[in-house]
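Thread amino acids onto this structure.
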């Protein structure tokens, strides 16, 4: 029987991993430079963690969670998003008593049962950062600066920062009522999901991609007239910091985030290269989540997350600008007869211990196949060891670009490569 990948999953092959490795190195180095420490949480969590934090009416909970019951009868999920698990660890591991702010970042595999599309899968990898303990607008600006710095290091230039505020619980209550009054007159033209959102979370209608809903949203009330003085001051403080940092932005009055726990500042970096689903990175503030939903102490917090699949997709056209590791061998070693196979492994081991890429012919291919394989693998040099070479201790190194050969003793092979003598061939 032939087996195929489960729908919405994918195999990540070596060439993509080379690109991912650069992304992971850049984002990890950038996070460290901003004072963030790395954390890893389990991919299995209790279902209630997400029902309470993400919202029982959210798409994640109602449509997208992979749920299971273990042998002890516990309701578990494959984690659909990263923040809730980090918040659970923050409380459970007593990081609540650490000096504030507590800055954490993570790489995590996540799972959502949603429609697979360009750059979006049911199993996906995510990088995220969370900052606990600061209510200052400078914390918002700094975390946006982290994202901006990271994306610049990855050579992005056509990205736009969209930013908005959702206000606090008090001022958002009045705004929600205004949205309900407005959208009730369009209820029959809203999609089924948005008709439900009208009862549960009308702000989510603003984020709907359905064309008929987007048309209704065009003239919907904006939140800014409903903001309290504290939320207005906070948002202006964030924008003022971004101006000082010279990070360009666009105040997007229709921007909301898909999870219920967000308050005040929300933001996204958007690329035009991914079509309608152009969000590369998104996040925002969630000051009430730990206290109200997870029974922790009052903890202001802000974070963002970025899908590695979407980032690597965007970076495919920028390979020449990035410091990519190569898996192409510097040297291909072929061997024929006697103890030449063992000798080949010994030579390769000496070179590999000095971080050189070496590929050994393990099958004893014919000479024609040796040349074909070496060139297909993009090797720069070819070394053929037969019984004569083993006996005399003299071999010939062939430069596969210039087609020139150089004879040398087997014992001199390491210094030939490690001292740069191969440039003479």
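Threaded sequence (425 positions):
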């Amino acid at each position: 029987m032939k087996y195929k990948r489960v729908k919405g999953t994918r195999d990540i092959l070596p060439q993509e991993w080379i690109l991912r490795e650069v992304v992971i190195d850049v984002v990890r180095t950038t996070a460290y430079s901003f004072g963030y420490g790395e954390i890893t949480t389990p991919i299995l969590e209790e279902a209630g963690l997400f029902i309470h934090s993400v919202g029982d009416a959210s798409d994640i909970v109602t449509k997208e969670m992979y749920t299971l019951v273990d042998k002890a009868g516990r309701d578990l999920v494959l984690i659909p998003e990263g923040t809730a698990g980090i918040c659970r660890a923050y409380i459970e591991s007593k990081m609540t008593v650490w000096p504030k702010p507590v800055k954490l970042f993570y790489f995590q595999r996540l799972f959502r049962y949603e429609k697979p599309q360009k750059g979006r899968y049911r199993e996906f990898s995510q990088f995220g950062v969370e900052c606990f303990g600061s209510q200052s607008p400078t914390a918002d600006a700094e975390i946006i600066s982290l994202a901006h710095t990271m994306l610049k290091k990855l050579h992005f230039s056509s990205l736009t920062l969209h930013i908005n505020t959702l206000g606090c619980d008090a001022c958002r209550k009045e705004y929600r009522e205004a949205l309900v009054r407005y959208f009730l007159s369009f209820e029959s033209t809203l999609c089924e999901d948005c008709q439900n959102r009208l009862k549960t979370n009308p702000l989510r209608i603003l984020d709907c991609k359905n064309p008929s809903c987007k048309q209704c949203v065009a003239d919907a009330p904006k939140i800014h007239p409903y903001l309290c003085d504290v939320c207005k001051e906070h948002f202006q403080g964030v924008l003022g910091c971004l101006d000082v940092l010279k990070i360009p932005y666009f105040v997007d009055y229709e921007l909301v985030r898909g999870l219920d726990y967000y308050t005040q500042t929300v933001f996204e970096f958007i690329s035009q290269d991914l079509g309608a689903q152009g969000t590369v990175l998104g996040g925002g503030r969630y000051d009430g989540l730990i206290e109200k939903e997870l029974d922790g102490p009052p903890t202001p917090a802000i974070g963002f997350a970025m899908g590695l699949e979407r980032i690597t997709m965007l970076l495919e056209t920028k390979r020449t600008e990035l410091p990519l590791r190569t898996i192409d061998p510097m040297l291909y070693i072929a061997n024929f007869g006697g103890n030449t196979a063992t000798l080949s492994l010994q030579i390769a081991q000496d070179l590999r211990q000095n971080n050189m890429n070496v590929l050994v012919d393990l099958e004893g291919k014919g000479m024609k196949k040796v040349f074909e394989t070496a060139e297909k693998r993009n090797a720069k040099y070819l070394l053929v060891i037969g019984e004569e070479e083993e006996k005399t201790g003299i071999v010939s190194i062939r430069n596969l670009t210039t087609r020139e050969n150089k004879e040398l003793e087997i014992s001199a092979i390491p210094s030939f490569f490690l001292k740069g003598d191969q440039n003479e061939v």
